[in-house]
Amino acid sequence: MDALDRVVKPKTKRAKRFLEKREPKLKENTKNAMLIKGGNANLTVTEVLKDIYAVKKPFAVLYKKKNITRPFEDQTSLEFFSKKSDCSLFLFGSHNKKRPNNLIIGRMFDYHVLDMIELGVEKFVSLKDVKNSKCPEGTKPMLIFAGDMFDVNEEYRRLKSLLIDFFRGPSVPSIRLAGLEYVLHFTALDGKIYMRSYKVLLKKSGCKIPRIELEEMGPSLDLVMRRTHLASDDLYKLSLKQPKALKPKKKKNISHDVFGTTYGRIHMQKQDLSKLQTRKMKGLKKRPAEKSAEDGGVSPKKSKS
Amino acid sequence: VEEVLAAAEEQEAEKRRSVTVEKELELEFDLGNLLALDRNPPAAAGLRGAAPGREAKLRALARDNTQLLVAQLWELPAERAGGAGGPLVARLPEPAFRLPREKPPPRPRPPTRWEQFARLKGIRRRKRTSLVWDEEAKEWRRRWGYRRAGGDPARAWLAEVPEGADPEEDQFARLRREKRERVARNELNRLRNLARAHRAGTAIPAAPLHPTGHQSREELSHVARVARVSTASLGRFQPRLPKEPSEPPSRNAGKKRRFEPLLGNLAAERSRQLELLRDMGSKKPVLDITRAVNKQLRQEEAEAAAAKGKKQSQRGKRGRRQ
Predict the structure, then answer these.
(1) Min CA distance, A41 vs chain B (Å)?
(2) What's the fold here for domain A29-231?
(3) Other CB atoms within 10 A of residue B141 CB
(4) Running DSSP on this structure, what letter comes out for residue B322?
């Protein structure tokens, strides 16, 4: 409870900053991921966790020790870790005879488990095995999802949302076009999900848009979906709710029509039409003779003494 | 020369063609997240085959999709960051794909007692300078904290006896005691404000006092009772329906059980015992079967409705273990 946290006031500015970073905000921090090994994690699963950690640095923590928990049965230890390290995404790896090379990917809302999906790793090619040049750490990847399963099936849709959340990286207002080097491609086919990572080479082409060549790089996984633990619809809707302050403010007196024309509305005060400033037509200007005839006997000129 | 020109032109035409990609369904783009969604069913025939062929097909598919995404990104308004020589930077729109938040949005905290008072009186916050001129040290010192303007309070060697105070009293002890009391009072007020904010956050919403279409019998009776009691004489002189029992307003409102005194109304006790003997001796059953059956049915319906509601909320609670 945030109220209970505030009972013990932080004594230093550093502690205060630490607590302020963790409290709920309007615009949130980038989500951190925690990568945990289960009690019986084997070499494959450990390598997967290490590679994903390399992709997601610095927004990930890799726990070195094995933790004997079962996420699907008991979620309290996951929630405790999440609270301690302020991570809202997690990836838990384990291995047993019934579920070989198991990865549980999940996310939290308010330090409680929101969604968890269990995936089995069928084939894994690690970063070390692919002998190509790698892109620098912390590049924002481009994400591409191919396959109609990601729209049709409800579980695949949640998996897509989870994967976007996981690999998205920090939200930036602008991006250097030459720095788009990393792309993660997910294909859903025949009940399997193929995740491939490529390094992007921008080649010259005739026009402004460069031609893309891809080079295989980085971890590639063949995944198969096993169990799922998805949040109920109302909890999911609650987590999606954004505060009203973040909505873009509607500008008054501006409207758009169907064809894309923007209309503005100006509210004028009452105008005195006789004193209106119009275009000056020199030919219509009153000459001095006409002016004195209008004025009558009063001559405006002073006589020189 | 003509051959060279023709070859160069062919190469250029090829390159220009190779930037465009043909797809059945258009991709959906979310440029704020650098995201592209391809709805086309993947070419199953090529991808189901052997591993190297599959890799090549996957890579070709990825290349096409990436080309489309990069084409979209290049359409964005771009500028040169950091002056004319800097890198070309595209301005990304807001991310459109709705992702759940990490934590619930922050609740506005209720104003503290001082804030309420200040709002009432119209007191606004004056901005104070952080440095104050110190006459003795002839320099700018902090208002409070390390090396403050008034000199170190621990080293104060003089404490005046104020008028009307006891001359024997220890002034230094008095100053220390008063400081301790001030600190304790401030801490108490801060905790009280926190408790108020906490209570306001978890307040149980009262049943709606205006009529909705779906209020149960208990809610309606509660609302009627509240309406009766909200008069100046707390409902003592309100007219009642013919069969409604009149109840005196009790402070506990039914929380404690009340028993009759042991040796009170002898006549009432006598009549009660005679009635009991009569009911025990009579052949007719005291129980009214129809009323009992209706009551049982209503109870069962209520239980079923409660169980259904509880099951729905239980399924919701599975995602959120407490």
Answers:
(1) 26
(2) Rossmann fold (3.40.50)
(3) 18
(4) -
Which of A59, A175, A221 has the most B C-beta neighbours within 10 Å, making it the best mutation to test the interface with B? A175
CA distance B295 to chain A (A): 35
In chain B the first and final C-alpha atoms are separated, in Å, by 80
Which residue stretches of chain A have pLDDT < 50? Answer: 1
- Give dist(CA A48, CA A56) in Å, integer: 12
Domain ranges for chain A, please list them: 29-231
- Domain range for B39 is 1-79
**Terminal alpha carbon distance of chain A:** 95
C-alpha separations of A186 from A189, B21, B206 in Å = 10, 19, 50
The ipTM assigned to this model is: 0.78
Query: Does this model's pTM top 0.80?
Result: no
Average pLDDT by stretches of 10, chain B with 322 residues: 86 70 84 89 72 83 90 85 77 88 86 91 88 88 85 82 86 91 94 86 63 73 83 85 72 75 87 91 83 90 85 62 46
Taking the CA of residue A58 and the nearest CA in chain B, the distance in Å comes to: 18
Q: List, for residues B159-168, the tens digit of each pLDDT value.
A: 888 888 888 8
∠ at Cα B275 (B273, B276), nearest 5°? 65
Task: Please name the residue of chain B whose CA is at the shortest distance from the CA of residue A165.
Answer: B99
pLDDT in tens, B94-112: 888 889 999 988 888 888 9
Let me know if residue B320 belongs to a domain.
no
- Is B128 a member of any domain? no
* Residues of B with Cβ-Cβ distance to A88 under 8 angstroms: 102-103
Residue B206 lies in a domain: no
Residues B25/B39, Cβ–Cβ less than 8 Å: yes
Return the half-sphere exposure (C-beta side, CA atoms, 13 A cut-off) of residue B251: 0
